[in-house]
Description:
Blueprint: E1 22-27, H1 34-43, E2 48-51, H2 55-62, H3 73-82, E3 86-89, E4 98-103, H4 119-127, E5 136-139, H5 147-158, E6 164-166, H6 176-179, E7 185-189, H7 192-203, E8 209-212, H8 214-244, H9 249-257, H10 277-287, H11 293-316, E9 323-327, H12 342-353, E10 356-360, H13 375-381, E11 384-387, E12 403-404
Parallel strand pairs: 1-2, 1-4, 2-3, 4-5, 5-6, 7-8, 9-10, 9-11, 11-12
Antiparallel strand pairs: 6-7
Helix pairs in contact: 1-3, 8-10, 8-11, 10-11, 11-12
Bound molecules: nicotinamide-adenine-dinucleotide.
Nicotinamide-adenine-dinucleotide binds next to helix 4.
Amino acid sequence: MSGSRRRAREWDWVGMAEAFAHDVVVVGGGGHVGLPLAIAFASRGLRTVIYDVSERAVARINDGVVPFIEPGAEPVLREALAKELISASTDAAVVGSAEHVVVVIGTPVDEHLNPDPTAIPKALRECAPYFRDGQLLVLRSTIYPGVTALVEKMVAELGVAMPVAFCPERIAEHKAMEELFSLPQIVSARTPEGLERAKTLFGHLTAQTVELLPEEAELAKLFTNTWRYIKFATVNQFYMMANDRGLDFERIRKGLTQDYPRAQDMPGPGFAAGPCLFKDTMQLAAFSDNTFQLGHSAMLVNEGLPLYVVSRLEERYDLANLTVGILGMSFKSGSDDIRSSLSYKLQRVLRFKAKAVIANDPYVPEEIDDSLLPLDLVLEKADLLVVATPHPIYREIVTDKPIADIWNLQGKGVVI
Length: 416
Ligand SMILES: NC(=O)c1ccc[n+]([C@@H]2O[C@H](COP(=O)([O-])OP(=O)(O)OC[C@H]3O[C@@H](n4cnc5c(N)ncnc54)[C@H](O)[C@@H]3O)[C@@H](O)[C@H]2O)c1
């Protein structure tokens, strides 16, 4: 069957489960969203296998270790391993063993901020020799609009009777084990069979599914993340406006949201970073032929915030003669994930301006960043501190050194 070009035909998928050794294979299942998803399926009794190119991730998963911080995931992984409901492999052949092939590989933008619409089809080519009639292919990565159609074409050319569905992941890191079972699941597919089977699959996790066309679902996911990114940018710009006039934006936000229902969703200022919001806004910008002014403006504001912070510090302090201590390098509180973290941008800019820059992060291990120092050493050596990530531990810091705290973690206001 490998790569053979046969005419796709209708396939009697009902009762196909017995023909497969597994119910689900998660391609990219060693990653931040693929692994919680695989664990969730296994926890619902589905025979689950992970295919991932990362040998390190696969070895750790098979040892019962989640290779990154995801609260609540590891005990469920161990339980599933003990029941032999989950395993991981670097061998693409496992793709042929499962009735449902769920693809959750990373889809970053490149150094020119361009999405790569061929990333998913390219990755799928490695799996294609193992595709079998009767499987369902579920795309779950956040994809550039039109990729579902590209994959449908590719599968049709292979001649495999395999409907394609696009069912985007909408969880937030650290909330996976809760949100996988509570968020409504968007399902989309071109054929009634694909739609029905995707609904049945995700029905194991959540009671509510929302049906869309593939093109609608692709945009729904990008709109979701971009909406959030623009909201953060709006607030960050408000923050800069107030701060430039010596006003504490947190006092203003608290005042305007108090018992006022229409402003309850206004977030506080902070570094809006991480592997999703920025790159998905750029995917949408590329999709709209770079006429997405709001998206690009949001990018300029959010990516510019570390530069703004440094400029303000430069006005107030003699940075060239000071050691600056950065508190927090991951992109969000309580996380070891440094992907697209603006703490590193802050570090880079400060290296040009300050006498020295040192940093701490209690969650980021040495194998990821071996330049980090223990917190007490940073507090001792630094002349000036910047809270870059609102890790709870920084709330407790007692020091007479100045702290720039745009997150208001210490509750003393956000003026810099
Ligand atoms: N991180 C999030 O919070 C989040 C939330 C919702 C959606 N998403 C989307 O989910 C997708 C995955 O994101 P992530 O954060 O889990 O990425 P990740 O980098 O943590 O995980 C991707 C995994 O895919 C593996 N992989 C890469 N190429 C492969 C291939 N050809 N075959 C098999 N495995 C391969 C990698 O080794 C890695 O383990 C992205 O499209 C992202 O936008 C992420």
